[in-house]
Design brief:
The chain is mainly beta and 464 residues long. 3% of the residues lie in helices and 49% in strands. Among the domains are: 144 residues, no CATH class; 65 residues, Copper binding periplasmic protein CusF (OB fold (Dihydrolipoamide Acetyltransferase, E2P), Beta Barrel), CATH 2.40.50; 54 residues, no CATH class. It is globular.
Length: 464
């Protein structure tokens, strides 16, 4: 086990996610029938949903093919079968399964400041500040993704063309002979020749293999070796060489009576009168007292990031607890000024930032990146980019942290917290007047400049 566990690190996961992250909603160990669905946030062994899972005896599957732990990457959405310990911070994995949602051609890009939408194989891929990005092609960044490159997307899908990306990896600059493209989704509009997955029209007339039970609503994986053709109406046609039923043909996670589920995901449908929600494309009943923090089911909206606990009963998952995730309050890119392994913090721009069990960690340096990356690998002078949630007591808690190659300049994106003196996220800022910007409370600014240890002097700024 490489990753350092300290009390403050555990507290970070608790404070961002509440008790679900640290105790599973209870004080006893979970049963062996536990299924955990969530994003990998770190290694040593594997961290999912704020829990460290021992993988010593675990089987790993990558797109249905036996693999190993080194193939797993931060930001991948996985399904883990195993158990949680009574301590609420550790567990044991019996198996870990990863499957991408789509790997194929980028057909359209609408991104600004790291957020927006990609069209990959006719699927609307939603991107936000918590999406982890990696490129195997030098020079491509999240804001410079080119058309026709090949992207692998991991994330939360409704099966009908919408994907909330947890990880984007640019595999190649373009399609090469012999490459296989693939997309997973729910069949819609089936006829004798075609069906749809989102805005992708799948022509299966030439497919070597097609499920005998092909029907609307069946969850399938479609493969082909030619880029989709543009139909000029917002859709593309993809010539399938293979159509295969995915798992048992249902998009959701199956279960047996009494099984338990811990899931991280995105709300994609809500029916308050019926007491149901759709999470990651799966319809679930919700117990009347499931919501936490004084919220009700009516407070949820489509696109809300949640973590839940459920029990399989009466042929369906019954959600017992729901906790709403928190978005980033501050984006900061600068140099580490101090590292405190005992407290589990790093200091950036004079602010102590907690690195917890639930922090999504990624080493993005171009030379010898550390796969088992954790706070012990961070050094004074390292350049990092962090998405930070500010706790009720003012504590800065990293939701995502990436180590970058050395570079000049400092970037801060957050709300104005004081007009006189000018402060952004509580940090003193100078030079905005010279840029023609008059700060107002709660105005969101993205500022580039220099940091002298006490004041951030702006050289450029954008108002959002």
């Amino acid at each position: 086990m490489k990753r350092t566990h300290v009390a403050m690190a555990v507290l970070a996961a608790c404070s961002v996610w509440g008790l679900l992250a640290c105790s599973g909603g209870g004080s006893s160990a979970t049963p062996a029938g536990m299924t955990i669905s969530g994003v990998i946030t770190g290694f040593g062994s594997v961290y999912v949903n704020g829990i460290e899972y021992d993988t010593a005896g675990a089987s790993v599957y990558m797109d249905d093919v036996p693999g190993d732990e080194l193939q797993l990457q931060p930001g991948m959405l996985v399904t883990l079968h195993g158990s949680n310990s009574a301590d609420g911070v550790t567990g044991t994995a019996d198996s870990i399964t990863y499957a991408d949602v789509v790997e194929g051609v980028v057909l359209a890009v609408s991104l600004s400041n790291g957020s927006g939408t990609l069209n990959v194989m006719g699927q609307a891929v939603q991107v936000n500040e918590l999406t982890l990005f990696e490129s195997d092609v030098p020079g491509i960044t999240l804001d410079t993704i080119p058309l026709n490159c090949i992207a692998e997307i991991s994330g939360y899908t409704d099966g009908g063309g919408t994907i909330y990306a947890s990880r984007i990896e640019i595999k190649q600059a373009g399609l090469l002979p012999g490459d296989v493209l693939e997309v997973k989704g729910t069949v819609a509009g089936l006829n004798a020749v075609t069906f749809r997955i989102g805005n992708l029209i799948v022509d299966y007339s030439g497919a070597a293999r097609v499920p005998g039970n092909l029907a609307d609503g069946l969850y399938v994986e479609v493969k082909g070796d030619a880029a989709p053709t543009d139909n000029g109406d917002g859709t593309h046609t993809f010539a399938a060489t293979d159509v295969e039923m995915e798992d048992d043909g249902d998009i959701g996670i199956g279960g047996s009576e009494g099984d338990d589920l811990q899931m991280q995901g995105v709300v994609m449908a809500i029916d308050v009168p019926a007491g149901t929600i759709g999470v990651n494309g799966q319809l679930m009943d919700v117990r009347a007292d499931a919501m936490r923090d004084g919220l009700t089911l009516a407070d949820l909206t489509v696109g809300t990031f949640i973590r839940l606990e459920a029990e399989f009963t009466g042929a369906q998952w019954l959600v017992k607890e729901i906790e709403v995730g928190r978005s980033s309050d501050v984006e900061i890119k600068s140099i580490i000024e101090a590292v405190d392994l005992t407290a589990g913090t790093i200091t950036v721009m004079g602010r102590d930032i907690v690195i917890g069990a639930g922090t999504l960690l990624n080493d993005n340096v171009s030379v010898a990146p550390e796969h088992y990356f954790d706070i012990t690998d961070l050094q004074i002078g390292d350049r990092v980019e962090a998405e930070v949630a500010i706790g009720g007591a003012g504590q800065w808690e990293a939701i995502k942290l990436t180590r970058e190659d050395p570079g000049a300049g400092v970037v801060l994106e957050a709300k104005v917290t004081s007009e006189m003196p000018v402060q952004v996220a509580g940090i003193d800022v100078a030079g905005l007047a010279g840029l023609g910007i008059t700060p107002a409370l709660d105005m969101t600014l993205e500022i580039s400049g220099t940091w002298d240890g006490s004041t951030f002097t702006a050289s450029a700024a954008t108002v959002y």
